[in-house]
Design a protein that fits this description.
four-stranded mixed beta sheet; Rossmann fold; globular; alpha/beta; five-stranded parallel beta sheet; 8 helices
Length: 207
């Protein structure tokens, strides 16, 4: 029997495109998926945040040591605290046969591509910039200047789609989820992936 490993899938795209919504809908339908748990240097919030569930909580010194030892797939600093994706958790889940999903902004995804190029990179785009603007406006949380800046940034990020393996238009949540599911299935059937696992099985049989 083939000992099939999991795959790291990186779901990325401009702010406001609906990454979180697509990811949540996807997870409701597939129990084998694992959401990549981030690491942070901020303290736990009151109300029951848990280590290894909401985040992995570490000190600044510990986090910076992990950066130095290249144990982070990506990281960034916001308002004085580090946030990032620890490689160990991803590796452990993949070894156990789970597919790991990392939902992340474009700059973070490009960091992951440098550190984990064997991941599968999916770029989620809006049907149009006008539709993206409408979605951001509907949030009701952004000023007009911030909306303009987000749209400029989105235009720049969309030009980076050549760095991704797949592009999914998020016109309809159900359709987008189906397309991502198809990508997951096709990646598990890739000749290069199956052949590597099958050859390892044949070597065991020969012993």
């Amino acid at each position: 029997m083939i000992d099939e490993k999991g795959i790291l899938f990186i779901l990325s795209g401009p702010s406001g495109v609906g990454k979180g919504t697509v990811r949540k809908a996807l997870f409701e339908q597939d129990t084998n998926l694992k959401y990549s748990i981030s690491m942070t240097t901020r303290t736990k919030r009151e109300g029951g945040e848990q280590e290894g569930v909401d985040y992995f909580y570490r000190s600044h010194e510990q986090f910076e040591q992990m950066i130095h030892e290249k144990k982070m797939l990506e990281y960034a600093k916001y308002v004085g605290n580090y946030y990032g994706t620890p490689r160990q958790y991803v590796d452990e889940m993949i070894e156990k046969g789970h597919d790991v999903f990392l939902e992340i902004e474009v700059q973070g995804a490009l960091q992951v591509k440098e550190n984990f190029p064997q991941g599968v990179f999916i770029f989620l785009i809006p049907p149009s910039l006008e539709e993206l603007k409408n979605r951001i406006v509907e949030r009701g949380t952004e000023t007009e200047d911030l909306i303009i800046n987000r749209l400029k940034e989105a235009r720049n990020e969309i030009e980076m789609m050549d760095k991704y393996d797949y592009v999914v238009v998020n016109d309809n949540i159900e359709d987008a989820v189906r397309k991502v599911q198809s990508i997951v299935q096709s990646e598990h059937c890739k000749r290069s992936r199956v052949a590597k696992q099958y050859k390892a099985l044949l070597e065991v049989d020969d012993k």
